[in-house]
Structures are given as C-alpha cells and as structure tokens.
Specification:
231 residues, alpha+beta, 5-stranded mixed β-sheet, 4 helices, 17 strands, 13% helix
Length: 231
C-alpha cells in the first residue's frame, strides 16, 4: 500500500528494562478525580466520572535520564501543570468489569496533563467544548512505562510534582474518587478500549501555572520520575 502523503510516525513510549517500546493509540483523561482538586476547581462530591480525549501526537515522550524542553503554547497566559498516574492498556475490550480491569493493564507511567487554563475557562463560560484548553502540541508529557508486574501497588502510591524544587502537588493515588478499575469499567462502556490506549487517571490538588524557565519534576512511587523544562 502507498499513501498520497507521508504517513505520520507511530508515537511510542520507552519501556523500563527493555529496548522495546509501547505504541500509543488513544489518550483518555479523567476529569476532577481527586476530591481536593475537584474542590479547588469549584466542585464537590462524587460526581459520575467524565472523560476527554487527546490525540497521540500530543505526547511529549520523556526518554529515561533526559530533561526535554516543553514549549510554552500559543494563545495562553495561564499554563497549568497536572501530574497524573497513567494506566497503559495492553488488552482491549468492551464492558470490562472493575474487578477484571487489571488484566487489561500492561503497565503504568507518570504523565502530565498540561492545560491552557484561561482558554479552558473561556469555553466553559460559553458552554462550548474546551478542547482548545486541553489539546495542543506537547500537551501530554509522559515518562517510561513500567510493566504492571514490576510497578508495585500503584493504587496506594504517593504522587507528587515540584516546580523549581518546591512542592506544588503532593498526594496519594489511594485518594482517587474513582479508582483505576472503576475508571476502566466506565470507559469501556462508552468506547472499546484497544491495546496502546493510555488513561490519564486524574490529578490531585495544587494545580498552578508555570512560565518559561521553570523546571518541573514529578513522579509516582515505584515508577520512573519525569523532569522537563518550560521554554
């Protein structure tokens, strides 16, 4: 088969302890999935989970030991960090039960759901989709994937982000409103999950703006931490 234009390259993420890589399909993100973060965004309670999607080419793949540049995006003056645990799907399926969800997870990684908060807020006020606030080049930094069998108990792991060496976000994955199994159960009723899909599971409280020159470093206990510089 030939194409009339050059086909885009397959986005892939390094795997801890291997030369093989994980191919990225779709990227699902869970909104407001920690109580304290929901509260700081003006919401309370255990509302039904909701999702938004980012394309694979929004990934900024962070190779082990590297500190890549994250380019400050256009149109915004309020560029926010959101540190997240990422579940990486190895076996797809529909209508997956929460109790069976772990069988579908290939591994876990540390990611950032970067957000043009001012643009997101403007669209919310107008009752319009806020894709422009969430979807742009390099909107999804992600580090190396740790196979699930080597990741430990990620659902009870600490999660943190520092900016210029100072704590911004620090919490525990156990504080997820909807745990990973429940997320996958809800997601798989709306979409058929496929191998290569990534699920950004939500961010804890402490989201805030970064500016050019800031260095972000973050992680989830037991996984490979990430570090990058805003330019």
């Amino acid at each position: 088969m030939s194409f009339v234009i050059t086909a885009p390259a397959q986005v892939s993420v390094p795997v801890v302890g291997s030369k093989d890589r994980f191919p990225v399909g779709r990227i699902y993100c869970v909104g407001r999935n920690y109580v304290a973060h929901a509260q700081e965004m003006g919401f309370t309670g255990r509302e039904p989970p909701f999702f938004f999607i980012k394309p694979a080419d929004n990934c900024l793949v962070i190779e082990p030991g590297q500190t890549p540049d994250l380019h400050y995006p256009s149109l915004t003056k309020d560029f926010h960090h959101e540190i997240e645990l990422v579940a990486c799907i190895g076996t797809g399926g529909k209508n997956i039960k929460a109790a069976d969800a772990k069988k579908h997870i290939w591994g876990y990684a540390v990611g950032l759901d970067m957000t043009r908060r001012d643009l997101q807020g403007e669209q919310k006020k107008l009752g319009r989709p806020w894709c422009i606030g969430k979807t742009f080049d390099e909107a999804c930094p992600i580090g190396a994937i740790t196979p699930a069998a080597q990741a430990g108990d990620v659902e009870k792991a600490g999660i943190w982000l520092q900016v210029n060496g100072q704590d911004r976000q620090r919490s525990d994955v156990s504080k997820l409103i909807w745990n990973i199994g429940e997320i996958i159960e809800h997601l798989s009723t709306a979409w058929e999950l496929r191998p290569g899909d990534l699920i950004y599971t939500g961010t804890p409280e402490g989201v805030a703006a970064v500016v050019p020159g800031d260095v972000m470093e973050g992680g989830v206990a037991g996984l490979t931490a990430i570090k990058l510089k805003v330019v």
